[in-house]
Structure formats: C-alpha cells, structure tokens
Amino acid sequence: MILNGFVLYVASLSQSICLYSELLQQSPTRQSDDFALFMTPAGQALRLWQQDRVIPATEASAGGVEIVLSVDSIAELEAQWLRWQSLGLEPIQTIETLSFGETFTMIDSDGHRVRLMRLSV
After folding, report:
1. Could you read off the pLDDT of 61-113 as tens digits, one per residue?
2. Nearest 10 degrees: CA dihedral of 90, 93, 95, 101?
3. With the C-alpha atoms ordered 40, 25, 65, 78, is the resulting torsion angle positive or negative?
4. Is 47 exposed, middle or buried (0-12, 13-18, 19+ CB in 10 A)?
5. d(CA 113, CA 57)
6. Res. 50: pLDDT tops 70
7. Considering only CA atoms, which of 18, 8, 109 is closest in space to residue 27?
8. Lowest CB count within 10 Å: 3, 45, 66, 115, which one?
9. CB 34: neighbour CB atoms within 10 A?
10. What pLDDT is stored for residue 17 in this prediction?
11. Coil, strand or helix: which one is 102?
C-alpha cells in the first residue's frame, strides 16, 4: 500500500481547478464534471472533489490539513508570496523562520491551508 495523495472537498470545482493549476503550474491529469486529479512528476496526487457530489456525503470543514509545496531558495519563497496573493489566496502566516526553515501559509476560498516552505533541516 502506498500513500500518494489527498482529496480536497471544494465548493467550486472550476474555481479550484484554476487556482491549483496556477499553484502547481500544471493542468489536471484527469477531470470530470465533479472531480479533478493533479499528478506531480514525483507521483504525488492532489484530488479535488465537488463537495456537494461526494459519496458518501460529508459535512467536513476545511483547515484540518495543509497542502505543502516547497522551493529551493528564499528568493523564490518571497516571489511566490506575492504571486499567491495575486491569485486570491489569503495570507494567514507571513514569511517567517520556523524550526524546519522559512515558510508562509495561506488559505484558499474553501478554507484549505496551503503552505510554501524552504527546508533548512
């Protein structure tokens, strides 16, 4: 058994596809009217599922997990800080240094946390 990704329940699939296409800098690998799959070159999967079409139905709220992306430099982290805000993400943590490296966190329109980090450990 291999853990290879996550599912985010989203209010607007089309809006979330636009956002995550920009964040991941790729189009969905597969897509239907209520589901989208992004596969990274490393084999990790991010799935978006229209919340009102999830089976079995759920009333789960967002914010209990984070989508984490990484960059190699502080300059790239700072550039993405501005880019992500221009995409409509809401900052909830400014750039700061934590025990694992420099990072910031924003939330998407569904309340999902998206973190960018430059690891230093």
Report:
1. 777 788 999 999 999 999 999 999 999 999 999 999 999 999 999 999 999 99
2. -130
3. positive
4. middle
5. 22
6. yes
7. 18
8. 3
9. 15
10. 98
11. strand
Contact by Cβ (8 Å): 116, 77: yes
Is 68:117 a contact under the CB 8 Å cutoff?
Answer: yes
Q: Contact 66/115 with Cβ under 8 angstroms? A: yes
> What pLDDT sits at residue 61?
74
Cα–Cα distances in angstroms (integers) from residue 121 to residues 36, 62, 64, 118, in the given order: 33, 29, 24, 9
Q: Looking at residue 94, what is its pLDDT?
A: 97
| Amino acid identity at 118 | R
Q: Residue 61: exposed, middle, or buried by beta-carbon count in 10 A (0-12, 13-18, 19+)?
A: exposed
CA distance 11 to 13: 6
* Both tokens assigned to 46: 């991010």
